[in-house]
Design brief:
Blueprint (H helix, E strand, L loop, with lengths): L8 E5 L3 H14 L3 E5 L2 H11 L3 E5 L7 H11 L4 E6 L4 H9 L4 E4 L4 H35 L8 H13 L6 E4 L6 H11 L7 E5 L5 H9 L16 H4 L4 E5 L6 H13 L1 E2 L8 E2 L3 E6 L3 H6 L5 H7 L2 E4 L10 H11 L12 H9 L5 H16 L11 H4 L4 H8 L5 H15 L4 H8 L3 H11 L4
Parallel strand pairs: 1-2, 1-3, 3-4, 4-5, 6-11, 6-12, 7-8, 8-11
Antiparallel strand pairs: 9-10
Helix pairs in contact: 2-3, 6-7, 13-15, 17-18, 18-19, 19-20
Length: about 450
């Protein structure tokens, strides 16, 4: 759009100088357009790349660069440029080709001036509507991002992570989120997506530790009909489904070496080969991975590929555990209680004694455990004020010696703390693995793998 005059910019392209001059006079005489002309396709393409006109009116048959070349250049430069093609030798095939390749309209010479004027005016209106629609979507996205569930916390260690997340959100850089289970990695991933240029696209999440290898490959890369038993039809993988959006890979450290190789290829080549196929499918997706394991330790043990780690670790964000930002507990409690406001508009209330107990507790399960504990208290209290006795036993009692020992050990690793916490939860739930998995916020299959990995017997 020519901002100085408030008129749409029109580029007319034709190798016949008589037609070029006639059309130039016609459209300039209307006073509705900022008119430019080009007698060669090469000149038109240069103008499109430099000036990005609103509308291009081009002859299709020209020596050298044709009208279809001009169309392709316009689509590459700005997909919203309206391209109208003219020809004296129209055919159904050429018209279909032009429309399929993105032309706004296809008109045959000779034509009536009023007919051509009406077409170009409609193209200008469509261009304005597209621009307004894009701006409206941008405003809505900004508003939704402002209203979205911004990760809650004011502690310095947490705020620094969120500030960096907001800085890198508009880029397409791959991000690796690390931190203990329940620290809010998926919440941060969704926040990054909502602030990115991909916010209009889909956000998909998959837990790499909750699926067996064959099923995870099918979910990520898709498969072809008949590629394995049960593959009764073609299936589109999440990497393709998330085109233009974001794919969140949780528990990336649980991914098997074979699947790691395939994911590395996707990140390098930006294409996917479905299971049972040999044909690559291009993908345009941003990957955000998350882990609660020390991947560098996994690399030393030969369980994780170093090259994949570097591909994922372009932007590293480490979420601190809740015990290191206890000042945020009242904020999180208010947020969760607001969300559980009853139908009658009455918000659950928390006693000072209950809040004190929650501030004393170290929350090895982090924010997820806090949310589960509060939900339990709301249910048990039955509309009454939430008191310490409504909280789980482990919250209002002194931590078990095993956890104290694990957390006070010299340089305790996430694995050491996680092992102790799993044992503690299992004891609290009297060995019931299903309830323990719910408290831990993981799938039962993931819990069984962790029990085997840590050698925990029940």
């Amino acid at each position: 759009m020519n901002r100085s005059k408030g008129k749409p910019t029109l580029l007319i392209v034709d190798d016949e100088m008589g037609i070029l001059e006639t059309l130039g006079i016609l459209f300039r005489g209307e006073g509705e357009f900022d008119v430019h002309t080009a007698a060669r396709g090469e000149d038109a393409i240069r103008f499109i790349e430099e000036e990005k006109p609103d509308i291009v009116l081009s002859d299709i048959r020209m020596p050298g660069m044709t009208g279809l070349d001009v169309l392709a250049s316009a689509r590459k430069s700005d997909a919203e440029i309206a391209v109208i093609l003219m020809t004296a030798q129209a055919s159904l095939q050429s018209a279909m080709q032009a429309v399929n390749e993105g032309a706004y309209y296809y008109i045959q010479k000779p034509f009536q001036n009023e007919e051509l004027l009406a077409i170009v005016r409609r193209a200008a209106e469509a261009r304005v509507l597209k621009r307004e629609n894009r701006e409206l979507k941008k405003k809505i996205r900004s508003r939704d991002a402002a209203d979205a569930a911004r990760p809650i916390g004011q502690a310095r260690a947490f705020s620094e992570v969120i500030d960096l997340a907001e800085t890198v959100a508009p880029t397409d850089s791959t991000i690796l989120l690390s931190g203990e289970s329940g620290a809010g990695k998926e919440v941060v991933a969704r926040w990054i997506h909502s602030l990115s240029d991909r916010a209009d696209g889909a956000f998909y999440s998959v837990n790499c530790g909750a699926l067996p290898e064959s099923l995870l490959e099918s979910e990520l890369f898709g498969h072809m009909k008949g590629s394995f038993t049960g593959a009764v039809k073609d299936k589109e993988g999440l990497l393709v489904a998330a085109n233009g959006g974001t794919l969140f890979l949780d528990e990336i450290g649980e991914m098997t070496p074979a699947t790691q190789v395939k994911l590395l290829r996707v990140l390098q080549e930006r294409e996917v080969i479905p299971v049972g196929s040999t044909e690559p499918v291009p993908v345009d997706v941003r990957v955000i991975a998350a882990t609660n394991r020390e991947l560098e330790d996994e690399i030393r043990r030969g369980q994780f590929r170093r090259d994949l780690y570097y591909r994922l670790n372009v932007i590293a964000l480490h979420l601190p555990p809740l015990r290191d930002r206890k000042d945020d507990i009242p904020l999180l409690v208010d947020h969760f209680l607001d969300g559980w406001e009853k139908a009658d508009g009455v918000r659950p209330a928390l006693s000072d004694a209950a809040m004190e107990a929650m501030l004393e507790y170290d929350w090895p399960g982090n924010v997820r455990e806090l949310q589960n504990a509060l939900e339990r208290a709301v249910v048990v209290a039955r509309g009454k004020k939430l008191k310490p006795e409504h909280l789980p036993d482990r919250v209002r009692e002194t931590p078990t010696p095993r956890l104290v020992e694990a957390e006070s050990a010299p340089n305790p690793t996430i694995e050491v703390i996680e092992r102790a916490y799993i044992q503690w939860v299992l004891e609290a739930e009297e060995g019931n693995k299903t309830r323990a998995a719910e408290v831990l916020g993981i799938d039962p299959s993931t819990l069984y793998r962790k029990l085997n990995r840590y050698g925990i017997e029940t």
